[in-house]
Amino acid sequence: MEFSLESNLGTVLACILSFLAAAFSSAGGVGGGSLYVPVLNIVAGHSLKTATAFSTFMVTGGTLSNVLYTLIVLRGHEKGGHQPLIDYDIAVVSQPCLLLGRRRDLQRHVSRVAHHRALRVFLASATFKTYGTGMKRWRAETAAARRMLEGGSSLDDGAGEALLGQNEGDGHRRQCVELMVLFTIWLCFFVIHLFIGGEGAKGVFDIEPCGVTYWLINVAQIPIAVASTACIMHQKRKSHAQKSQEFDQAVSVKSKLESLPVYVFPVAALLTGVMSGLFGIGGGLLLNPVLLQIGVPPKTASSTTMFMVLFCASMSMVQFIILGVDGIVTALVYAITCFVASIVGLVVIQGAIRKSGRVSLIVFMVAAILVLSVVVIACSGAVRVWVQYTSGQYMGFKRPC
């Protein structure tokens, strides 16, 4: 009876903390997996494997509500030019490489000690860079507000972001095509993952880990990702060439990004996926800062990141549902909690942006989440390393399978 009461209290506390983590993560435009796993593992008492499985449900729930809110509620502001939507150009050209890089086979052969040291250094570096980006944007917003008070005219960030997030004319038709392309890519990777397993779940067939069949199926992801990315980039080049003279006036944000080499976003997504798979954290925690560093405006970076993370997390969630995972009902309760919390977080941050006129609040929110993630991951990682050390478990390099 005492165990049951203690277990229930842990679950309730985990739900409360997950709600806060989901609201905070949604406001910053990251998935939140780096916060969910320690909460489920330490507070709720789930094993690391179960916590990882449950976190995929939670990330899917949080990102799904964020994307739906962006597409349904915020779409009403689109025509006024005050609110950007998801940049499907970035998503469709980056998603194959992000899915390819996120294979966690890389993580399994890394020493635990080296793993956490490298992760802390990487996240600390990302925090400083993100904070610097936020300060630059804050100063730019202050200067723009001063010019407006003095009667000057300038193109504000909202208008610039609207140009990035949407296109005129046949935009809806292009978005439908890009969504179909993304779903096709998702399906291809999902079938591969279903065969060989991953993210803590076994495959449909009893394929020997590290056997010839295993590696043949695993390596098949590379030509799929490369071919699909190459085709998409080719189509984007043709599309941009046809529209080059239509945006002579909009030379601020959109032209700046389109002047970048076409391979920038796929390479950035691949590196982000590799790092997230290597460190065992969600791709959104790394992808959002990367997009901000490239020059994507905060609102667009946030919306696009959540959209891309939804594709990654939903793949793992569906795999767990098909292959079976203990505690599906509990996982769905956590997912619903994150679904509601994500909307709350998005409403709060959008209200704060409207009142203050500071889009840079999103950047500072991302920096704050990075700091919180460094602390949570370092503490939970130190606890696990200590437990492994005191119990005599092997802590060195491991096989990739």
TrEMBL record:
**What Pfam families is this protein classified in?**
TauE
Sorted alphabetically, which keywords does the UniProt record give?
Membrane, Transmembrane, Transmembrane helix
Its membrane topology, per UniProt?
Answer: Multi-pass membrane protein
InterPro entries attached here?
A: TM_pro_TauE-like
Compartments in which it is found = Membrane
Q: Where are the transmembrane segments?
A: 51-74, 176-196, 212-233, 262-286, 306-325, 332-353, 359-387
Q: Which GO terms describe its biological process?
A: protein ubiquitination
Family per UniProt?
A: Belongs to the 4-toluene sulfonate uptake permease (TSUP) (TC 2.A.102) family.
Per its UniProt record, what PANTHER family does this chain match?
CEREBLON (PTHR14255), OS01G0786700 PROTEIN (PTHR14255:SF35)
Question: How is this protein named in the record?
Answer: Sulfite exporter TauE/SafE family protein
